[in-house]
Amino acid sequence: MLARGEGNTGLYASRPLAEWVGLSGDLWIKHEGENPTASFKDRGLCVAVSLARRADCRVLACASTGNTSSSLASYAALAGLPCVVFVPAGKISTGKLAQTLAYGARVLEVEGSFDEAMRLVEEAAEAFGLGLLNSVNPWRIEGQKSIALELLDELDWEAPDWIVLPSGNLGNISALGKALREAHAAGLIDRLPRIAGVQAAGAAPFARLVAARRENAAAELLPELAPETLATAIRIGKPRSWRKALREVEALDGEVLALPDEELLDAKAAIDAAGIGCEPASAAAVAGVRRLVAEGKIERGARVASILTGHLLKDPDLTARLHDGSLPGVPAPRPRARRRVASSLDALREALADLLGRAPPPPLR
After folding, report:
1. Nearest to 308 by CA among 287, 329, 288, 285
2. Domain count for the chain
3. pLDDT tens-digit profile of 40-91?
4. Sequence-distant (≥ 6) Cβ neighbours of residue 17 within 8 angstroms
5. Are the beta carbons of 173 and 165 closer than 8 angstroms?
């Protein structure tokens, strides 16, 4: 088995964040950005690449918004196997692209969205015998189940009331739901938590489907033809794992939300300010808790776990622009974080007064 020390990611009990979302009970933050390549993808790809090598796959492939590609590139390099990744041209963050290239993957930039890249890699896998490592690969799901099992272990097998996570291609909600049901069936937990998936409003086909199923149990997924959100990791219009995810949402009496980018970025700013930090898509988990509390669907005294899926530095450009106040139409969450200063004490005194909101103390005599 290939391994880089996956798992054992931090579980943070943040009172400031609990208060920000409106909880008087516990809010735990499980940070999957602390995996080796800085996202939850490492759990599934550790398993899937190991088994692909055992099955004598010669070339590995995936479509990606960035996290899958960087993780696959790393594990393929460990396995000594070439890999080709299909990414939407111009729609992958610099940090994720840099990781993917650094680990030695061959990158194909596909004109169009992630969904076009996904369609093309599926066709290529069929035509050219590539080993497809997206979450349609069942071994990916088995590896990602460890998020839920590790969380339950850290909570001494006392299930929280809710688990809330971002939702893009829906592999994670499929994996966590499966793990929770299996843990319950095995007697490891005495009740099932409810689960909530959170999508960006501009890329929310699954949220629309779940809402439609309440009116018509036979409703099918209607893809988002032009998905758009600043949360690039979940900018997906046709999630491939929707049938599995739907089964888990229905089995766990779940909710699926579609939130505007403004709410996701507000949550990101709160997570960053708490000293934890995450990439924009990850913040959907905490934004979702806040919305569900506000709507009365999560009780204020509930015990809630949120899954952060990626590290702060996965999208450094957007993060810097958010906190610097240079993101169009989005106010900085705090006073301007930086300014240029001349090399003199007088200029420094003025700058410190501006940045700190007060003048520095007078010098000691």
Report:
1. 285
2. 3
3. 999 999 999 999 999 999 999 999 999 999 999 999 999 999 999 999 999 9
4. 27, 29, 270, 271, 274, 276, 286
5. yes
CATH number of the domain that 96 lies in?
3.40.50.1100
The residues with which 310 forms a beta bridge, in sequence order, are: 39
Q: Where are the beta strands (DSSP E) in the chain?
A: 11-13, 27-31, 60-63, 83-88, 106-110, 131-132, 162-166, 194-200, 255-259, 304-308
How many other CB atoms are found less than 10 A from the CB of residue 189? Answer: 17
Please give the angle made by the CA atoms of 301, 304 and 305, to the nearest 5 degrees: 165
Q: Is the pTM of this model over 0.90?
A: yes
Query: Tokens 């709410």 identify what position?
Result: 263
If asked whether residues 153 and 271 sit together in one domain, one would say: yes
CA distance 351 to 341: 7
Comparing CA positions, the residue from 146, 169, 164, 190 lying closest to residue 254 is 164
